[in-house]
Amino acid sequence: MIASSSSSSTLVRVVRAGAQGAALLWRRHDTSSFTPAEKAEILIDPYNESPKYLATYPARIPSSLGRRVAANRFVSRFRAGVRWIACSQPRTIGWIRFPTTGTILLIASLWIFILVRSLSMRPYYRSRWNVGSPPLAIRTGLFALGVFPFILAFGAKWNWVTFVTGYSHEKLQVLHQWLSHLFLILSLLHTFPFVVAGREIRPNTDGKNPHLYSQIYYSGWVAHKVYYWSGVAALIPLAWLCWGSATPIRNRFYEIFKYLHFVSAILFSAFFYIHCNRVRFLLLGSWHYLWATAILYLSSVVMRFALLFVRNGIAMPKATVELLPESTVRVLIACPPGHRWKGGQHVFLNFIKAKPLESHPVTVANAPWLHPNAKAGARTMMILLRISPRSGLGPALLELASHGTSTPVLIDGPYGGLMTSDLGVNEHVVLLAGGSGVSFISSILQDLCERRARKFEGIRTKKVEVHWAVKNDEARAWLDDHFVSVVALVPDDFVRIHFYVTKSAIIQDVVEATAAAVAVVEEKPNAQESLTSKGSITSAYILKHSQQPLSSTPQPWFATHRGRPDLPAVLEKAFTSCSTTEAVGIASCGPAEFTTAVRNAVAHRQKQILLGASTGAQEVELHTEEFDW
Fold first, then answer.
1. Predicted structure pTM score
2. Within 13 Å of residue 190, how many CA atoms lie on the same side as its CB?
């Protein structure tokens, strides 16, 4: 009643105001010749209830100009040229992986500028040791000091670069790694001139060098000048930080690498601070520069942990673990209200009952739709995690799955995803995944389907293709039910899923032999479906819980293929099937070779657009994720 009376009084005021305006209009005109109908018309203001467009003009003008500029042929070809450079990627050589061509050009430009600026100026050395420090050492040292804050900024999970630009931390890791190697080279170029110039024998005029030591030996190990020993002490952990981060070492000993990397970073930062503080460069601001760097990095750390506390709350979320085929577990996390994420994002999880001190990066496999302006309620987060049954986190998660118990988890994130783009603005979307990379595209697929089902503003997608490559048929059980529920939201022709099995089916003889072996084990009196003393799970438990039945009902939107997908052919077909007015959006996640093939196929299409291709899609957008960084 209160709301009704309030709205009625508002309506009365509006009508009264309209009548007053009409009365003023009545007095302004001679109405003696008006008919009764015309006089009544004056009392009605039809513009009071009409839409007001003035506020929409500022938003419509840039949008209209943007569409016109994007449709311009020259602009389209220029954009394709930029994307061609940004997408193309050299193939891996062994374990050496190169970034994209655009990133290589950016990094190479910085390297060339700094190294040319450092090495092109002469002299490199002073005439004598006591005249002053070698100019080459001073230049390279200050350049290294200038690079240092960017290394920390690009290495933090929550950082100010991401906050300003929208590019997530995993996309900045390549800059973090290559700037670190540049820092190491500059540090060596800073060190060697002191070694060369320090070979000069120190005179014994003051009687303090009777053994006639060299200048550098006397300064560092006799006089114990702090800026010499602190420089050497900083150089040792720096070398490990760079060379110990090589892909084979990082992948083979990830947990050890992570702790050593953290400890080495602390040691290096401490010695580097001492080194710069004692060099007496205060007029050049080196010490103050380090304080500014520390504030920049520590603010990122504080913000990350503040968000961690706000998102998890006092009572941590609970997770249940379910065993799936192909050494995979499904983790279902009951997230508290207010915790929201988008398709393609990842989180870092700490399993309190499993490995509480280890943080594991995982991609969220689902993305329940939520209006951007709505408050997130309690939702379930689904994680697919490949494990090793005998090492790492695997045995602990298998034990939780075998007992059916839940565990508190600490959720750090979400991070990444399609932060700077929206695949929903493209008419044709292609989602590509290799192995467990399906977690990335499954959440994007759910987001697109739910937005399409709700006819959400801005969604222009008409067709979604999913191409998923795995080794064995059993991997389909990972997301079989998820795909069925998601595809049911949209029309039959909206989604097509192509499932590629790269290995042939398991030979029946092997299956029968394994089943017989398991039967023998189960006949033993003490055989149990539990973990052994070494933390590994019995083969009976794995076989029983991994042979889950797949959906036998044929689905019109699901097709199974034998062999590896021909990624260039798949993408070329998607490009040519579109009209020149349609755009194609691509998202990919998989091993390094998989992602490189996708990038180069898209780069080839961008090159065709640049050279004036007259058929097929003229707008191609690509977003890629990889298993590691």
1. 0.76
2. 22
